[in-house]
Design brief:
The structure holds three protein chains of three kinds. Chain A is α/β, with parallel strands linked by helices. Chain A has helices at 16-27, 59-75, 97-112, 122-128, 150-163, 202-205, 236-242, 278-291, 337-352, 367-379, and strands spanning 6-12, 30-35, 51-52, 90-94, 118-121, 138-142, 146-147, 167-169, 174-178, 181-184, 188-190, 193-196, 212-223, 231-234, 247-255, 260-268, 299-310, 317-320, 327-331. Helix content of chain A is 32%, strand content 28%. Chain A is globular. Chain B is of the alpha/beta class. Chain B has twelve helices and 23 strands. Chain C has a single domain (5-80), classed as Ubiquitin-like (UB roll). Chain C has one helix at 23-29, and strands spanning 5-10, 13-18, 36-37, 43-44, 57-60, 63-67, 78-80. Classes of the chains: A alpha/beta, B alpha/beta, C mainly beta. Chains in contact: A-B, A-C, B-C. The A-B interface holds A 39, 41-42, 46, 82, 151-152, 155, 219, 221-222, 258, 263, 276, 278, 281-282, 285-286, 288-289, 295-304 and B 85, 371-372, 374-375, 378-379, 381, 384-386, 388, 408-410, 413-417, 419-420, 422-423. Strand 17 (299-310) of chain A pairs antiparallel with strand 23 of chain B, so a sheet runs across the interface.
């Protein structure tokens, strides 16, 4: 018996989240059309770090990222060299005894959800990363984390989706998303379900989504193979990423397969102003040099900025958006879009299929935004 | 030690003919006003007037460099501009010299960043001993010996003849100069030279200067052959192919403006040419541009544009006489471009295996012509390497009709220390 | 007769080069054809001569990625070639 492909599903946004959703829905038998204003990975997907990381700023985030890492491992055999996956692991670096104590509890948290994590003292840290400065207290090593090249991974996912009947429409700007409909510049596409995976622009297409652009800076060096072996992140990253201050920097260093070193990170709320902020760039570089002094001698070949899609409660929006028939949201991942793309896609497909998910979907439900507003309204 | 120079009225970026003229004329226009010339080379001269051990520069070059020395302008050599930003009404320039940060602020800036060669990919073009036409000239002047070497020059443009002459004078054996332009087009160009007696004389002199060499039109390189290095070249005229053994192949298909700095400042460009008004000001107020970046056109055009830009940047007016000299030189330059237009066959020399982006080893077959330049960069890494698309970008613009992607700082590689130390200055 | 040359070390071997000449010219004089290796291991050497193509990158006095065509020879300099991509 041949299964009849179901009515169309339209995914708006061919970034990594949209690509993952397209693949998950196509796997469930949906005939998927992916629509993008430019081309796959043109937006936030092309400007970030590509760190696949288990993040424990909240139990929900940890559940989503840990689940996603598992899915990345399952997908790995199907990814080709474009994805440039490097199983380098992460070192969460502790500057002092107090942070080292926090790292102890972090290890326990990771292990409790089945993730390997190992405590390193100063000596072991320096053996693992010869270029870090003396005097750091130690680190938490998470070997299950890795690094990918997000545009490459996105193209792989879209190719897999195409093999299951999906199509991608590039250079198609979406003007409006309505009930079972996507209004483009020259035509309107209709479908049983529409997924808004438009990243930081998601709120422009679905008014009411609490997603704002959170600007970041990155700098990349020439090739220095072996300069660093793991993704290095300071514990203060958690504070920077997950507290909504106006601007902050946090040490984040990544070795790329090319031997280039990618230096981050910064966060600012300045609307859509993409111009390079040299003060912030310098602060970011200075913070990095505090941890890895020999970074001073490396040659930077380019700096750039990008926008993360940020939500007020730091969790993405995954699932039905009740005000619009047929509309699902898969957006608002802040700095975890690459990691969480696969978990997001699976949760979304589960909800569409009315299936139970491997983790609790409720914390990510877009309805929470409306419930929160309703409760505020009722107090007004 | 990082250095902060005294603020200047005018900073000139680039020490070729346009930059030298701009610095000289700015300094002479207002004696006592501070002018700084920033240049990457060991000494001013750019490419066309490059000096080197044992070299005597041409008379015109000596005239201008002597005026530069007398002008009072501060010459900051062996210094690369890394970033330029607006600072109030003026600009702040960040440079790197000998691995250290150097900054200077200025009221006005003149971009005289010159041009680079356009390389088009063909099988074997990345082998050692295949180099640019301007490239071999630069290496020759910087002290390289090509004595006794068998050299083939195959490309396009008026650069090839003076380079052949230099190589022959230095003891090189120029086996062939292959100009891709047809004899007919070339005849039209040389006929137009009657307007400029000086250039006619120059051309005659050049023909006399190189002997034991053949000059062929409508002829181009098809491939470079070799294993660890190039040892022979396949040449074609569209009808007959020949394989010639040689030690060096020089190739280059015209010049491309170095407009990166202008684009970083947000100046309007037409393709890669920087758009300027009647007084050489770009669309970025206070930023002027002179010479090859506004349109490829040779030394005399660069000099007159530099003169106008230098005077204008200092707030001085420019005479009608100078402006009409510029107009005449613009006409000559346009004739040049038309005469040496690239033939279609050059766009299909590369095979699927041929490397297009040298920095990242991206091959022709990896690139989809349906893409934009940004897509090619993101999907294949073409243009993401050290040269940031300077070489492959010019080639792909020609082959695919693409336009360049946006420019981000640093426009030259800069140490992390340089970017940090700027804050202390 | 004034000796206007400097002494430098190329891949461990001592050589002399004219004062004011570039490291690239000294390396060519030393018979080097592979200045660096491309990302897929191909041999590469100077092309543009003016610091634009980055194919002449070598390690000078321990600093990698130096464009040999832009750097003048200095007495006591140590240059290594062929290693970096």
């Amino acid at each position: 018996m041949t299964a009849t492909p179901r009515a169309d599903a339209i995914v708006v946004g061919a970034g990594i989240v949209g690509a993952a959703c397209a693949l998950a829905l196509a796997n469930d038998g949906w005939r998927v059309i992916v629509v993008d204003a430019e081309f796959p990975a043109a937006g936030t997907t092309s400007v970030g770090m590509g760190h696949l990381v288990a993040m424990d700023d909240s139990p929900e985030q940890l559940a989503l990222t840990a689940y996603s890492l598992q899915l990345w491992n399952e997908l790995a055999p199907q990814l080709d060299t474009r994805a440039e996956r490097e199983p380098c692991g992460t070192l969460w670096v502790a500057e002092d005894g107090e942070q080292l104590a926090a790292v102890e509890s972090k290890r326990f948290t990771y292990q409790s959800v089945g993730l390997d994590a190992e405590l390193l003292d100063e000596q072991s840290l320096m053996e693992a990363e010869p270029n870090v400065r003396r005097g750091l207290a130690g680190a938490l090593r998470v070997p299950g984390d890795s690094v990918v090249y997000p545009p490459g991974a996105t193209l792989c996912m879209l190719d897999l989706a195409r093999a299951r009947g999906a199509t991608v429409r590039e250079r198609t700007r979406v003007r409006e998303i309505g009930a079972h409909a996507v209004v483009c510049e020259h035509d309107t596409l209709r479908a049983e379900i529409v997924v808004n995976a438009a990243g930081p622009s998601a709120a422009m297409l679905t008014p009411g989504l609490p997603i704002v652009p959170r600007k970041g800076h990155l700098a990349i060096t020439d090739r220095y193979h072996g300069f660093c072996r793991h993704q290095l992140v300071e514990l203060g990253y958690l504070t920077s990423a997950h507290v909504m201050t106006n601007e902050s920097v946090a040490f984040n260093l990544q070795p790329r397969q090319t031997g280039q070193v990618l230096i981050g990170s910064s966060r600012e709320l300045v609307g859509w102003d993409a111009t390079l902020n040299h003060d912030i760039l310098r602060r970011m570089l200075a913070r990095a040099v505090e941890f890895v002094p020999s970074l001073r001698d490396l040659s930077i070949i380019r700096c750039w900025t990008g926008f993360r899609p940020a939500t007020p409660d730091k969790l993405p929006l995954i699932g039905r958006w009740p005000p619009v028939d047929g509309l699902y949201i898969a957006a608002g991942h802040e700095g975890l879009g690459i990691t969480s793309s696969l978990g997001t896609a699976r949760l979304l497909a589960d909800e569409v299929a009315a299936r139970a998910s491997a983790i609790d979907r409720a914390p990510f439900s877009p309805s929470r935004v409306l419930d929160a507003r309703a409760s505020v309204g009722s107090h007004a | 030690m990082s250095v902060k120079l005294q603020p200047a009225e005018v900073v000139v970026v680039g020490g070729g003919p346009a930059g030298i003229a701009a610095a000289v004329c700015a300094a002479e226009a207002r004696r006592g006003a501070r002018v700084v010339l920033v240049d990457e080379g060991f000494a001013p001269g750019g490419q066309i007037w490059r000096t080197g051990p044992g070299l005597r520069p041409p008379r015109l070059a000596r005239h201008w460099t002597e005026r530069l020395a007398a002008s009072g302008a501060w010459v900051q050599s062996q210094t690369s501009v890394v970033d330029v930003r607006r600072d109030g009404d003026g600009f702040r320039v960040l440079c790197e010299t000998s691995g250290q940060a150097l900054t200077v602020s200025c009221g006005r800036i003149v971009l005289a960043t010159g041009a680079r060669e356009r390389f088009l990919p063909f099988p074997g073009w990345t082998l050692p001993n295949v180099m640019g036409i301007g490239g071999i000239q630069a290496l020759l002047k910087a002290g390289t010996s090509f004595r006794g070497q068998r050299i083939i020059i195959a490309g396009s443009g008026p650069l090839m003849l003076p380079v052949a002459a230099s190589l022959t004078s230095a003891g090189g054996r120029v086996l062939m100069v292959a100009e891709q332009t047809s004899a007919k087009r070339l005849a039209l160009f040389t006929a137009s030279l009657w307007r400029s007696p000086a250039r006619l004389g120059q051309a005659a002199l050049l023909r006399a200067k190189f002997f034991a060499s053949s000059y062929e039109t409508g002829t181009w390189v098809k491939s470079a052959i070799g294993d660890k290095a190039m040892r022979s070249v396949m040449i074609t005229n569209g009808k007959r192919e020949r394989i010639l053994d040689c030690d060096v192949l020089c190739t280059g298909f015209g010049l491309v403006p170095n407009s990166e700095l202008a684009r970083l400042l947000g100046c309007a460009v037409d393709g890669r040419r920087v758009v300027v008004d009647d007084v050489q000001q770009t669309t970025a107020v206070g930023a002027y541009c002179a010479g090859e970046p506004t349109g490829i056109g040779g030394v005399e055009r660069s000099l007159v544009e530099g003169e106008i830009a230098g005077r204008s940047a200092m707030g001085e007016s420019v005479s009608m006489q100078v402006r009409s000299r510029r107009a005449a030189l613009h006409r000559y330059a346009e004739g040049l471009t038309r005469a040496f237009e690239l033939r279609d066959e050059l766009r299909t020399l590369a095979g699927g295996d041929t490397v297009v982006c040298r920095c990242e080893d991206v091959r022709m077959r990896d690139i989809d012509p349906a893409w934009t330049s940004r897509q090619a960069k993101l999907y294949t890494r073409a243009g993401m390497g050290a040269c940031q698309g300077r070489i492959c970008g010019a080639a792909l613009d020609c082959l695919m009709g693409w336009t360049p992607d946006s420019v981000r700082p640093p426009i030259e590689p800069a140490r992390v220390a340089t970017l940090l130390d700027e804050a202390k200055l | 007769m004034i000796d206007d040359t400097v002494e430098l070390r190329v891949n461990g071997h001592l050589m002399r080069a004219a004062h004011g000449s570039s490291v690239a010219s000294a390396l060519i004089a030393a018979g080097i054809t592979r200045f660096r290796s491309s990302t897929t291991g191909e041999p590469r050497a100077p092309v543009c001569g003016m610091g634009v193509c980055f194919e002449c990158r070598v390690t000078i006095d321990g600093m990698p990625h130096q464009r040999a065509c832009l750097v003048g020879v200095q007495s006591g300099m140590s240059v290594t070639t062929g290693e970096e991509t």
